[in-house]
TrEMBL record:
Protein name (database record): Bifunctional purine biosynthesis protein PurH
GO terms under biological process: 'de novo' IMP biosynthetic process
Catalysed conversion reaction: IMP + H2O = 5-formamido-1-(5-phospho-D-ribosyl)imidazole-4-carboxamide; (6R)-10-formyltetrahydrofolate + 5-amino-1-(5-phospho-beta-D-ribosyl)imidazole-4-carboxamide = 5-formamido-1-(5-phospho-D-ribosyl)imidazole-4-carboxamide + (6S)-5,6,7,8-tetrahydrofolate
The species this protein was found in: Virgibacillus salarius
Listed CDD domains: IMPCH
Record keywords, A-Z: Hydrolase, Multifunctional enzyme, Purine biosynthesis, Transferase
């Protein structure tokens, strides 16, 4: 008996050649509406699915292949006598190959101005059903969901070399594909109904790149991107120059962009090991970068710099004087690009839109589970700050306090940031006690601590940090407030004439 292939594809790329090849290999092809038309127009003899089912396509294509004559032919085990007898009794012919790809649900979601009705209509029902039937019965049926597999499968069919292992691989791809497809649908419905943390959490990512290694060379890794691209994120940045990004590069570059999204004025952020080592804000991007550099000229070595303005020649000249792993910006002037691309080892990334703060969830894997929380998109309203001390901050101090508060949110806890004139001067990150973080920041700032402001990601459990700040010459402090012993810190501030404000919001980052 002739082998039979069922072809029903939305993405018709490469299907004519594949179907022609099947026909030449003596395989009979059966097809649905649009696919049938395309194959017949290309001169590939094909049977209409209605001819097999004896039933017309109904409900605008919502039902075309959902029929026992199709699914019986797909699910029957060839080595099961009962199955074979039932096929015979019911005059069902077996189907040996299934070539199906689905309604473009993802592409429809991404369309500008798309209606909910259009999205719903692009949920494929018959396609996944055929894919799943064929994949379940992979021992007897070969199923192809990915057009990039057409050629390889066709050659194997022609040479009669398609093994059960290969069919299982094709089936595995199908189940990944339908799981991804359903995950996108589930996410869409869940977002529509506004459930943040439903009883099961379904997410799907697509592989963008196999990485050379993970955080360390003995770890293996890959970079997966959101199925629906997130504009202004690292995942959608374009690499213009340099070697492939590494695992650590991606983490650091992402951290740099998250910090950058805090600032609306021209800003430059230098990152090392996911902490900012320098942040500068100014009227021009070259000055902003100069400030980020001056913040810590040692740590920036081998770091990542992200800017929210096009890199011009002046900035490029400054950038090219130091060793940097990555520069990220919304663009580069021709002169800047010429200057920077001379350096073989620098990676240059271009953002197509402003770095944007992603709404949604963050994930932290723990052994045996996953912690999921909404992103820390907390922003304070400067008008709602509480002044805790006798002295109010001056206008200039307030500007630096707000600048430092945006920075400290992105520093690992316990975090202290010292800032002066729109640049960080000291960063104390990831310490097990607050005074430890403050000591590091003060030591790093050295003489620049005099007249600087201090931001703390969480309240002061005791007055030691404020005492250290006073000794270093810090004049104003911003912190969440809320400690039982707040008054002790307030007293020290008042004694030294320090202005302290409370945000009422904590920014732990572990
Ligand atoms: N309802 C059905 O019985 C059904 N059977 C196949 N499809 C899909 O119809 C598409 C192909 O349609 P056409 O051949 O008419 O262009 C494929 O993406 C296939 O997955 C169906 N459509 C959606 O549910």
């Amino acid at each position: 008996m002739k082998k039979r292939a069922l072809i029903s594809v939305s993405n018709k790329e490469g299907i004519i050649e594949f179907a022609k090849g099947l026909h030449e290999a003596g395989v009979e092809t059966v097809s649905t509406g649009g696919t049938l038309q395309a194959l017949q127009e290309a001169g590939v003899p094909t049977i209409a699915v209605e001819q097999i089912t004896g039933f017309p396509e109904i409900l605008n294509g919502r039902v075309k292949t959902l029929h026992p004559f199709i699914h019986g032919g797909l699910l029957a085990k060839r080595d099961n006598e009962e199955h074979q007898n039932q096929l015979e009794e019911n005059e069902i012919s077996p189907i040996d190959y299934v070539i199906v790809n689905l309604y473009p649900f993802k592409q429809t979601l991404e369309k500008q101005g798309v209606t909910k009705e259009e999205i719903i209509e692009n949920i494929d029902i018959g396609g996944p059903t055929m894919l799943r039937s064929a994949a379940k019965n992979y021992k007897d049926v070969a199923v192809v969901v990915d057009p990039s597999d057409y050629n390889q499968v066709l050659q194997a069919i022609k040479q009669d070399t398609l093994t059960v292992d290969q069919r299982q691989q094709l089936a595995a791809k199908v189940f990944r594909h339908t799981a991804n497809y359903d995950a996108l649908i589930a996410r869409y419905f869940t977002e529509e109904t506004g459930e943040d943390f439903p009883e099961t959490y379904t997410i799907t990512y697509e592989k963008a790149q196999t990485l050379r290694y993970g955080e360390n060379p003995h770890q293996s890794a890959a970079f997966y991107k959101r199925s629906i691209p997130v504009k202004g994120s690292l995942a959608t940045a374009e690499q213009l120059h340099g070697k492939e990004l590494s695992y650590n590069n991606i983490q650091d570059a992402n951290a740099a962009l998250e910090i950058l999204a805090e600032y609306t004025e021209p800003a430059a952020v230098a990152v090392k090991h996911m902490n900012p080592c320098g942040i500068g804000v100014a009227h021009t991007i070259d000055t902003a970068f100069q400030r980020a550099y001056d913040a810590d000229p040692i740590s920036i070595f081998g770091g990542i710099v992200a800017c929210n303005q096009v890199i011009d020649q002046l900035t490029a000249e400054k950038l090219s004087k130091i060793f940097l792993e990555i520069v990220i910006a919304p663009g580069y002037t021709e002169e800047a690009l010429a200057l920077l691309t001379v350096k073989k080892n620098i990676r240059l990334l271009k953002l197509h839109v402003e770095p944007a703060e992603e709404v949604g969830h963050t994930f932290t894997s723990v052994n045996g589970g996953m912690l999921i929380q909404t992103k820390d998109n907390g922003r304070i309203n400067p008008d709602e700050l509480t002044i805790a001390t006798t002295r109010e901050p001056t206008e200039k101090e307030l500007a630096d306090l707000l600048f430092a508060w945006k920075a400290v949110k992105h520093v690992k806890s316990n975090a202290i940031v010292l800032a002066k004139e729109k640049r960080t001067v000291g960063v104390g990150a990831g310490q097990m006690n607050r005074i430890g973080a403050a000591s590091i920041a003060i030591e790093q700032a050295a003489e620049h601590a005099q007249g600087a402001v201090m931001a703390s990601d969480a309240f002061f459990p005791m007055p030691d940090t404020v005492e250290a700040a006073a000794k270093a010459g810090i004049t104003a402090i911003i912190q969440p407030g809320g400690s039982k012993r707040d008054q002790d810190s307030i007293d020290v501030c008042n004694e030294y004439g320090i202005a302290m404000v409370y945000t009422g919001m904590r920014h732990f980052k572990h």
